[in-house]
Amino acid sequence: MERVTFEDRNCSVARSVDVLGDWWNLLIIRELLWGATKFDEFQRNLEISKGILSKRLKLLQDYGIVVKHTVGSGTEYALTEKGRALHVIIIAMLQWGDKWNPLAEGAPLIPVNRMTGAPLAPVQLTDVNGEPLELKDLGLIVGPGADETTRERLDRLRQAAQQKAAASR
Question: Which of UniProt's keywords are assigned here (predicted)?
Fold first, then answer.
């Protein structure tokens, strides 16, 4: 079966899902963030077949998320800057899972500040002024990369929201 791709979509979420939408990719990234570097470690920790692991590591390399290095007589993998930036997504997923899909025994891992040992606060969105935001506070505006379809779609969403607000008055 041919893989569907979203790389040409005028949507940052769709293009991100193109890379991160496969659960193995996210779990490999998690392993790298937690310190795994060798193929054998990924295979053991994830209980993944060699074929799937090879394909996923190659895809992550192609997208510039992972680099492969020869170390002595072996090979190690590391996250690039682009890959390391995914730590926020992984921590947000961990925190979401602990809150909304918890184990009866409690969280398996607790992320902490390595220097102080203090647990991390829940990941939360803030605006550029540091103001915390909830879903009800979020809006969208057209960005410089928006195509005409995206502009029309955002305009339809805005009109529907205005109609809904007017009807509730």
Answer: DNA-binding, Transcription, Transcription regulation
Structure tokens at 53: 């692991």
Q: Please identify, among 84, 105, 121, the residue that sits at the C-terminal boundary of a domain.
A: 84
Q: How confident is the model at residue 124 (pLDDT cuts 50, 70, 90)?
A: very high
For 42, other C-beta atoms within 10 Å of its C-beta total 22
Q: Write down the pTM of the prediction.
A: 0.86
Long-range interactions of 115-119: CB distance < 8 A, separation 24+: none
| Residues of the domain holding 142 | 135-167
Token couple for 151: 């502009």
Name the H helices within the chain: 12-20, 23-34, 39-46, 50-62, 81-84, 87-100, 148-167
